[in-house]
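Dear colleagues,

For the upcoming journal club I promised to circulate an example of a predicted protein-ligand complex. I picked one with PBG because it came up in last month's discussion. The inputs are reproduced below in full, followed by the predicted structure.
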Amino acid sequence: MPFPVHRMRRMRATEPLRRLVRETTLEPADFILPLFVTEGGRVRNPISSMPGNFQLSIDELIKECSECIELGLGGVILFGIPEHKDETASEAYREDGIVQRAVRALKDRYPSLVVITDVCNCEYTSHGHCGKVVGNDVDNDSTLEWLAASAVSHARAGADIVAPSDMMDGRVAAIRRALDAAGFVKTPILSYAAKYASVFYGPFREAAESAPQFGDRRSYQMDPPNAREAMREIALDIEEGADMIMVKPAMPYLDILRMARDRFDVPLAAYQVSGEFSMIKAAAANGWLDEQRAMMESLTAIRRAGADVILTYFARQAARLLQRG
Ligand code: PBG
């Protein structure tokens, strides 16, 4: 027999052949776009470290979302930037807080748009931590009350999914119980189950004005070297009632995504975080990388590792590219 019999290059020879055997595909419906909502009218503050992203007032947010619907995105996730921050994160769970009003406005205008809300306190506390500070630590159990109250206020405003990102223990159970007690038995929980204490959140903290004023988040977010621990976090959240789980960040944690995909049969989301986005943008701005290809390759890798859904600041740009074919 002449050597080689197997020529892997045969099926790679032309684009139609490559397309025929492609194992992983992307669709606009896979993407969730994170959006930052702030007080005021006609506000569009550019976020300098995240080109193309803005802090938007509610009127501008509404405009922004019409394109999301045209493009067929899977949905949006909202982060609130309140005018007023305090020790008790009171704006996070006020019935007429910024996110609650934004959700009402969006669902009123676009009933079919999937609106997810991030449930956390760091954008609302004066110290920037994700919960109640007692001594020099974030107190777990008292923080659960704020989270449950926030989630219920988001559901009441019409949120389709609530997504806790704080990493307190027991928050999924506390939120589920509170939602059910308030009559929101149908509101699903997307848990940021395996969320690491990552340097790649840097640009987000500028966008959301949520950098901790002292210390860091390592006593509640996960330690980057740990993988088995992520499986325990996910298992606990599913037991507590999470309907979907998330791994965050995405590209530096593809192994975690793959492990989670292989072990758990719930829908799996990955968050391509601000730093992942900004690195690609910065390299492209320098002429060091082809932006579109870097964007599509990174999103494809995240899907291939096992994510069903990707939260990404590239949502619109990638969807536009897919639409053009
Ligand atoms: C809030 C939250 C953060 C992100 C999503 N939700 C920041 C943090 O934990 O500091 C990061 C998202 C990103 O970097 O794009 N707790």
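Two points we might discuss: The chain has a mean pLDDT of 97. The longest helix spans residues 140-157.

See you all on Thursday,
B. R.
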